[in-house]
Design brief:
By secondary structure, the protein is α/β, with parallel strands linked by helices. About 45% of the residues lie in helices and about 10% in strands. The strands form two sheets. The protein has a five-stranded parallel sheet. A four-stranded parallel sheet has the order 2-1-3-4, with helices on both faces. Helix 6 (about 165-175) links the parallel strand 5 (about 155-160) and strand 6 (about 180-185). The longest helix has 20 residues, at about 290-310. The radius of gyration is 22 Å and the shape is elongated. The structure holds phosphoric acid mono(formamide)ester.
Length: about 350
């Protein structure tokens, strides 16, 4: 069977992404009634983390457990990942032992290197370029909080802040699905031409729209969802004064900014958040915030994604075949010579 990786939502059609969301919704309903089917019984997930994580780690590990499988947490220093062993060898060896690999890597090239050699699905759990599992979860959350009378293609999503890996992914999935996406940021922190070109190509195919502006008030005026992310990340500590000066106070999502948005507008954040920096407590904890629904949906999306990629690849032997092998091993053990 051909292996399919989940590295970038651009590798999937709009229909495929919506199919993944439909599957996720079925699994979420089953979860709500305590009936998650054990579709991945006996399956193993290797989780490689080059950076810390709360949501990604916990959601994948719990998803595997609830589906009847098992997850292994692998961090640098405990496995050979491009140190003492090539990335290709790590991918080939893990592929012989587990059914799926999820990796959070510092560099996008690392996940591409793993996927190039793995013969089991590789899932991108965030790189310096993108965060595709997060944004599938975000679209699902938007569908659940869609204003009355609107369809997905009517939704207006405004991302305020730095052109992060989450921005790139959100811009690409929204435009692929025919939504109307706006990014508001100082010119220096707007997305590079290559990202814009991909999003514009998506819009031509889907009927979506892309707006990039430094005028944050006009950007939120028609927004159904206002989304933000951290203004700096690990490795950008030297840039903090410059970044803070560029974004604060104009691009902070606070009650004053949300007064310019429609009353029904919801606030989203992939988390972790720096409260008091890119968003105030008042907004994070206020009635427009859906950030914890968004976090919970990571669990449901990971389940959908794991089932989607792994279930069709699992062997499902008949009861007779299982019994045949169990009896053979049992007969061997009953010879009694093993420990005598
Ligand atoms: N949103 C997200 O990926 O969170 P973690 O960094 O905690 O995994």
């Amino acid at each position: 069977m051909t292996v399919r990786h989940f590295i970038d939502t651009q590798d999937f059609t709009a229909a495929e992404l919506l199919q993944l969301i439909d599957l996720t919704l079925l699994l979420k309903e089953a979860d709500r009634q305590g009936c998650t089917p054990k579709l991945l019984e006996g399956a193993s997930l290797a989780m490689i983390f080059e950076e810390p994580s709360t949501r990604t780690r916990v959601s994948f590990e719990v998803a595997m457990a609830e589906l009847g499988g098992h997850a292994l947490y692998l961090k640098p220093g405990e496995i050979h990942l491009g140190v003492r062993e090539s990335l290709a060898d790590t991918a080939r060896v893990l592929s012989r032992m587990v059914d799926v690999i999820m990796a959070r890597t510092l560099k996008h090239a690392t996940i591409l290197g793993l996927a190039a050699e793995a013969i089991v699905p590789v899932i991108n759990g965030l790189t310096d370029y993108n965060h595709p599992t997060q944004v599938v979860c975000d679209v699902l959350t938007m569908m659940e909080h869609m204003p009355a009378g609107k369809r997905l293609q009517d939704l207006r999503v405004t991302f305020v802040g730095d052109a992060t890996n989450v921005l790139s992914s959100l811009m690409l999935i929204c435009t692929r699905l025919g939504m109307h996406f706006t990014h508001a940021a100082p010119v220096k922190y707007q997305p590079p031409a290559a990202w814009r070109a991909m999003a514009e190509a998506n819009c031509r195919a889907s009927g979506g729209t892309l707006t990039i502006t430094d005028d944050v008030v006009s950007a939120v005026r028609d927004a159904d969802f206002v989304y933000t992310d951290l203004w700096w990340w690990v490795g950008q500590e030297d840039e903090i004064p410059e970044r803070r000066a560029a974004f604060m106070p104009v691009y902070q999502v606070n009650a004053e900014l949300l007064r310019h948005a429609p009353a029904h507008c919801k606030f989203m954040h992939c988390l972790p958040a720096s409260r008091g920096v890119e968003v105030t407590d008042e907004v994070m904890d206020g009635p427009q915030s859906i950030v914890y629904d968004q976090s919970e949906n990571r669990l449901h999306v990971e389940k959908g994604l794991l089932v989607w990629l792994v279930y069709p690849r699992l062997k499902r032997p008949s009861a007779e075949l299982r019994a045949y092998h169990a009896a053979r091993v049992q007969a061997f053990l009953e010879q009694g010579s093993l420990w005598s």
